[in-house]
């Protein structure tokens, strides 16, 4: 047997009933010859990790725009933390770690520059609106590899699309990532807010600290252990931990996500992205060649939305400055 076939046979013995076996994947949109070394889900995780969209995540905002300091989370570090939490849960529950990892690594590929402020701005600008989960799927299906896409498995595509929104993922691995995303951002955004002086540990509601713990690591450990012990056929938390997490999330919205001090620069985001959008729609010749092809096939608005969504924070500011800020005169 090949190493891939050996791994597939091992999964049949190790994974729990209901877990997603690589050998029983629903396949890809375009059929491919299997890899001799890697399962289909391992290949997907590699394809995402090597993509241009994944590399750009290191320069995209998580919560704080262009923070001064090296230790604040970016969209990439958020993605990696989601991946670690999700893999810990998947391993303990005897689910497919490879599928879980691939979904986690790809779940935010479509996120905009400037975090959720950028997403809100594009939602109001782009015809038909904008959702980062739908854009993440579009990135892997349509935009990567010069328009050929990554041709991921249907299970990974489903997990990426359904990591947020009303529809739950079809696989237990996808539901692990969906839950891990919330576990990660509520906890690590708190850690960043404390580092930034927006919060103090004692500001966190007493019920939350009493149920989840009095430090970042305690809270992560509590929730992971609770998900592992509470999950049966479905992936879930116990009621006390779920209530504490809901209270924690509500507290973070009031104390951080809508905090004027933390969000003082976000009022400028809409103007930057709206200006870029109008400029590029009026002259698609300014777009890179890949996006000009999208404009020819799907219209200027779609191509411009794709281009702006893929920008890093720094690149969006640079392009706005280049297009709208007068340069110094030189002879």
Describe this structure in words.
By secondary structure, the chain is mostly helical. It has a domain at 40-266: Hypothetical protein af1432. The protein has helices at residues 3-14, 40-49, 52-56, 75-92, 97-106, 115-125, 132-143, 154-161, 172-195, 206-212, 216-230, 239-257, 269-282, 289-298, 300-309, 313-324. The longest helix is centred in the middle third of the chain and has 24 residues, at 172-195. The radius of gyration is 21 Å and the shape is flat.
Number of strands: 0
Find the CATH superfamily of the domain at 40-266: Hypothetical protein af1432
Radius of gyration (Å): 21 Å
Distance between the termini: 70 Å
Structural class based on helices, strands and sheet pairing: mainly alpha
Largest sheet: none
User: Which CATH architecture of the domain at 40-266 is right?
Assistant: Orthogonal Bundle
Shape: flat
The number of helical elements comes to: 16
**CATH class descriptor of the domain at 40-266:** Mainly Alpha
Quick take:
By secondary structure, the protein is mostly helical. The chain is 60% helix and 0% strand.
């Amino acid at each position: 047997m090949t190493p891939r076939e050996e791994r597939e046979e091992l999964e049949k013995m190790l994974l729990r009933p209901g877990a997603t076996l690589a050998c029983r994947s629903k396949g890809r949109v375009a059929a491919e010859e299997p890899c001799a070394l890697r399962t289909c889900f391992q290949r997907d995780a590699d394809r995402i990790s090597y993509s241009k969209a994944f590399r750009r995540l290191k320069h995209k905002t998580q919560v704080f725009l262009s923070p001064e300091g090296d230790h604040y989370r970016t969209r990439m570090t958020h993605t990696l933390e989601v991946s670690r939490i999700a893999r810990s849960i998947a391993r303990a529950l005897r689910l497919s770690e490879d599928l879980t990892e691939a979904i986690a690594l790809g779940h935010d590929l479509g996120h905009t520059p400037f975090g959720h402020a950028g997403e809100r701005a594009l939602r109001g600008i782009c015809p038909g609106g904008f959702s980062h989960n739908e854009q993440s799927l579009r990135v892997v299906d349509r935009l990567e590899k010069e328009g050929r896409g990554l041709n991921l498995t249907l299970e990974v595509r489903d997990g990426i699309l359904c990591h947020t929104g009303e529809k739950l993922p079809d696989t237990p691995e996808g539901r692990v990532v969906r839950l891990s995303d919330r576990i990660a951002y509520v906890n690590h955004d708190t850690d960043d807010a404390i580092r930034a002086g927006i919060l103090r540990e004692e500001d966190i509601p007493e019920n939350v600290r009493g149920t989840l713990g009095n430090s970042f690591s305690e809270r992560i450990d509590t929730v992971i252990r609770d998900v592992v012990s509470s999950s049966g056929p479905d992936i879930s938390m116990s009621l006390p931990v779920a209530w504490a997490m809901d209270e924690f999330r509500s507290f973070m919205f009031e104390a951080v996500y809508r905090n004027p001090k933390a969000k003082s620069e976000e009022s400028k985001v809409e103007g930057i992205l709206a200006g870029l959008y109008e400029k590029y729609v009026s002259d698609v010749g300014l777009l890179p060649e890949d996006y000009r092809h999208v404009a020819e096939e799907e219209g200027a608005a779609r191509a411009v939305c794709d281009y702006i969504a893929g920008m890093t924070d720094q690149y969006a500011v640079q392009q706005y400055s280049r297009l709208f800020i007068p340069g110094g005169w030189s002879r």
